[in-house]
Every structure is written in C-alpha cells, then in structure tokens.
Amino acid sequence: MFMHGNYDGTEHNLVRSPLVFDVYMGLHFWDRISVNNKAKTYIAEVIVVAEVNSISVCLMDIGKGTPFVSSLEMRPMKSSLYPASMRNQSIALQERHSRGTNSLVRYPDDPYDRLWWPWPGSSGLLNISTNETIKRYQDDIFEVPSKVLQTAVTSPATSIPLNFSWTAPTIWPEAVPGYYVNIHYTEFQKPQGHQFNTYYNGYLWTTYNPVIPPYLLAGYKYSTSQYTSDNSGFYNITLAAANTSILPPILGAFEIHYLVQHDSILTSPEDVDAMISMKTEYQVKKNWMGNPCLPESYTWIGLKCQSDGVMSRVISLNLSYNDLNGPVPDSLVNLPYLLTLFDTTNGDPCNRKSPKKKSTTVITAAIVASAILVAFLISAFIVCYFCRKQGTTSKEDREDNNIHLSDGRQFTFKELTEMTNNFSMCIGEGGFGPVFHGRLKEGCSSPTSTIGKGMEEFLAELNDCAPSVSCFLVGYCSDKNHLALIYEYMPNGSLYDHIRGKHAIAQTLRWCDRARIALEAAQGLDYLHTGCVLPIIHRDLKSHNILLGFDMVAKISDFGLSRSYLNAAQSHISVSAAGTLGYIDPEYCLSGRLTISSDVFSFGVVLLEVVTGEPPIISTAFHIVQRVKEKVAMGNIEGIVDPRFGVEYDPNSIWKVVDIALLCTKEASQERPTMSTVVAQLKDALALEEARAGGSIGDISQGGANFDLSISSLLSER
C-alpha cells in the first residue's frame, strides 16, 4: 500500500507533477505507481507461489520522485486457488469488483482479505440481493465470500446485455501481453431463471455456454489462457441472455489479472535461503538486497555466481571486512556449488593464520572435480546407506581394518581415464556431479578387492546393500582423492527421451509399453517407501529419472536429493523445497514438510505425462493437472491421450491411469493413495490394455519388493 500523506513535508504538487515509480517482485515488473493525491491510498496486489522462504519487493526509481511504501502485507492462501498462479508465473490484480453493492468487502467476510471494491458505473442496471447464505462446491478454486455473491446486478430486460470493460496501461515499461478474467455468479431469484452467453471483445467465450448459475451455490467462469486484444489494448466482456432464458443476465463479481512474467533463469532456492540466512544471522555489512545472483549486473557484493542456462548457483563468497567472529556458519553447508570462501580480515580460523597476513586466505569449501562420477555414481552410495539392513559385521568381513567388497573390481584413476577417453563424453548430470560414458576392455573380471580403512564406512554401507545393486555394480575407484563407482550403462535413455525427447522423434512409444514402464517405476517407488528399514523419499521423481535398460525395463535413478526417515515414528522431514518445477508437491513447497506423499504427487504428474505426452508446464497454459481435469470434466478422452497413439489403446485402461494420477495429485497429501495402491491400479490398467492387444498378463511382477531397483545417479542426455 502507498499513501503519500506529505510524509516528506515538501508540500509537493502531486496534481501538477505526479510521483511515479515502479514496483518489482524480485526480478519481475509488477506495477507502476503514479501518485497524484497525497491523501489517497494506492494498492498493488499479486498472487505468487513462493519458491523460497522469502520474497523480495523492490521499488525502482525511474527519475520521477523518490519511491516510498506505506505497508507491505502478505496473506497465505491455499495453493489450489487461482490456478493461473503457478511456480513459474504469478498474476497481478488489475481490477476486482463486487456488483450490486456500495460497500467494500474484505476480512473477516473474506478470510484471505481480498478487497472487493464496489463497481462505480452501474447506471441503468438493477441491483438485486438476498439474505440467503451462498454455499460453494468442495473443489471451488476461487472461494468467493458469500457476502460478495449475496448482491448482484442484472439488466432491465433480456434484450439488454451486461458489459464491463478496461484498457491496458500505456505508460508501463513492458506491454501487458494479455489478461486472465474470472466472473462470479449465483442464482437466488428463480432456479435456472438466468441463462446467458459470454462474449470477449465480440467473440463468443466458447466454453460452457449458455451459463446457468447454480441455485444458492457459488458459480464461476474463468479464462484458462491469456486474453489478448487486437483493439489498441481495449477489452470488453459481455453477458447476453440466452434464447432459453426467462430472466436477464446476472453478475455478482469479476476479477481481472495480468501475468507477472518470470525469467527463464532462476537462482537456486537453496542458495537464496542460505544467503538470506547468513545475512540475517551474521548481520553482514554489505548492501545485500533482493536476489543474490540476478540480475547479473546487480549480483550481491562479494558473490560470484554461475549459470547453466536454467539455474544460477553461488560458487564464490567473499566475506572480507565484516568483522565476523566464531565458527564457520552452518549456512555454508547449504551452498553445494560453493568452490571458494574468502575472509581476509580475521585470518583463517581453520588454519590459525594471523589476520595481519597480507595474502588472501582461501578456504576450499568444495571441489567438485575431486569426485569424478562414472555411470551410476555417488547417489548409489546414498541409497545404499539408507537401505542398509541392521546387523553386525562378522570378523571374516573385517580384517586389519580393511573392507572386502566381493562383487566389484577396484579400478585406478588411470584406468578410469583410459576407460572414459580422458572423461571426454559427459552424458548427464547427477545429484552430485557429472556422469561420464566409458567402455571396459573385453575379458575384464571382477575379483574381490581390499580397500584401506580410509574408505571403510563408504564400502561397508555399499556392501550392506549388495543384494539390491550387485548385478549392476561393475566396480569402484578410491585412488587418492578420486572417488567413483562404475555401473552398467542404461542404453535406452530415459522415459522422457521416449515421450518427448530424441527417441520420440523416430518412434512413438506405444500405450502398452508406457503402461508397463509406469507400473515398473511405481513398483520401484513403492520399494523405496516400504521395502527398506526406514522409508526413503526420492524427492526428484520425473520422467528424466526413469531409465530404461537393454530390455526396456524401467529403473529409478538419481537419488541426489533423496532423504530417509530417521525412525519409524517420524511423520515428515522438515527441509527446504527442492526438486524440478512442475513435479514438486505444492503442499511440501508451502509447508516445508517432506513426506512419502510428496513422491506420490510427483509420480502422479509423471503418469499424466505418460498419458498425454505433454510436459507438466507449458508457458501459455495451466499445469498439466489443471489441463487434464478440465478435459476429464467434459468426458473428452480423445483430448487427453497422446494423439500419436491413434486408436491403439483401451479407453478403460487410459481412464484408470488418469483416475489414479488425479488421486496422486490431490492438493491435500492425506487424500493421496499409497504407492502400493497405485501399483495395484496400474496392474489392472496394464491388464486391460494387454487384453485388448491379445497379450498375457501372467508375467507381471507382484509387489514393490520384487521390483529390480537400479540404485544409481545416472541421468541420460537431456
């Protein structure tokens, strides 16, 4: 909120020379504020899905007076509301009006404290109202207050339409590409009395015409994509009575939002949280405001960041001249890509160097190059660590503090260099570093090898999980500072490759094959949740991380972000949101409470991806869950399935997969099924499709514990 109130005592003539400045949400333009009345309150509102634990609001001086802000208020909302607002885009309010009233409606009538302003231009229209409570459906995505819908406007006759219009701003630094419009209504005069068609700039608003407002229930119609104008930024919405209507059109309220564009490159939420925490805890004496890495011209002083084209990460941090004392801050642990940390003021507490020393002290925080990952690497160790069986180690397994690994060959770093042709072919990026392709010489055996006690813990945990990974583990390297695991190569790439990637261009993966792969992946995830001593949460399940072997058998990969429960009574893990946009559980994002249901949500998105062939996020449309829900509501199976299937699929099989996918992606985690339930449903779906194709279902594996899980961190080419 902005109210000048002559705060600076200058008695500035705002009418003759308005004060103008821009408001940004992080890196993104939000609104331009033009103040021409010192007693008036100006309001800017935006709906944003928070990606990190803090949100930056910036006031930009554009040379027309000093920017100011009177108050900044935040209201939590359900993530299911306003589907146009997603992790990759926010929506800002242009207009919100309640019709048929002269009073502002807000909290406590609206629990989210949205401001429903009375509409000033109702000349020639009739105001109508009711004292009846207006209820709403359970899955209402706007939750308009009953008080707003208890009033409405209608025209004097069925031949007279209702209209409202607006014009896009012309003085903004960026043109508004289009708008999202929501209209709200109910019927409180005569059941099915009001029936009307809706038009946008003279064109019929194609979905759900005519509109028949539900009796004493909240109804709404909303745009699923941006409306644009070919009329110099002028927009008009018309409600005209349908031929079957006995009463004129009716309107209770409307909202108009525009898109706050997000950049394609983001700073890692994990890095943002770590830097904000460090700034707050240690009162760093630098001008650290806004986003640490972006825009690049405004990177925080003392930071160096590196971008891979999608995500920007902190790689260097200079804390000189901040008078820091005490231990190295815990926040540094949450900067996984940090290579160097500088402090030239207080010396190096780790090496007890004097602060008088003139040369710069460098504390090496991480050296990625020292841990070369070949094929399925360090992530395998992490999952082995989580999945180990409790018990003691016999004396035969430990002699002279050495560990015997019976199922893998020990390689030297020189041999790795030769196998990978000097690490010339990087085929992906795992949770802990790059993945290289290599080739073994023919006739190489895998003898029992002995490793010194420096690797004891690592290999002990790996050996405990040998039953799960021994058929894929080729060997390992522990040559001085070089640590690597060598695993079997998965030649058929990822599920993503076959749906939308390089393999999809040459050949379409049939529905029967997709259903089988989905079942195998579900069994693997069920094994992680129920087959280990304590449940493991993958935390980054997506089509890229479901790999396919020679026989197209699915294996779950990349456990770089995975977490394990600490005890059987634990209900969740408190951790900052991480994963891949489009697949992350929204409840986990908002609460920071990670559960096995978070994996279930991600798997539900993968299932919808398998059925539709579409990515979770499309820049000009809603999330895949909303897109599929709309088509399901219309019973349009042809509009859901991947058109490349043609007619080669069983509709009941598709419906069963879509049904379980929508259950997996329920907003509330307690309403989602377990992976065991998902496995059972997918078995039925596969059986239906195989019956259509004349196949047999007798060879489908039973249960998650029998699934052959590949514990690896290999990611195929993306």
Automatic annotation (TrEMBL):
UniProt cross-references to Pfam families, sorted A to Z: Malectin_like, PK_Tyr_Ser-Thr
InterPro entries membership: Kinase-like_dom_sf, LRR_dom_sf, Malectin-like_Carb-bd_dom, Prot_kinase_dom, Ser-Thr/Tyr_kinase_cat_dom, Ser/Thr_kinase_AS
Transmembrane residue ranges: 362-386
Name this protein carries in UniProt: Protein kinase domain-containing protein
Localization (cell): Membrane
PROSITE patterns named in the record: PROTEIN_KINASE_DOM, PROTEIN_KINASE_ST
SMART domains named among the record's database cross-references: S_TKc (SM00220)
Record's GO cellular component terms: membrane
This protein's UniProt keywords: Kinase, Membrane, Phosphoprotein, Receptor, Serine/threonine-protein kinase, Transferase, Transmembrane, Transmembrane helix
GO molecular function: ATP binding; protein serine/threonine kinase activity
Keyword NADP found: no
Topology within the bilayer: Single-pass membrane protein
The Protein kinase domain, residue ranges: 421-686
Record has Membrane as a keyword: yes
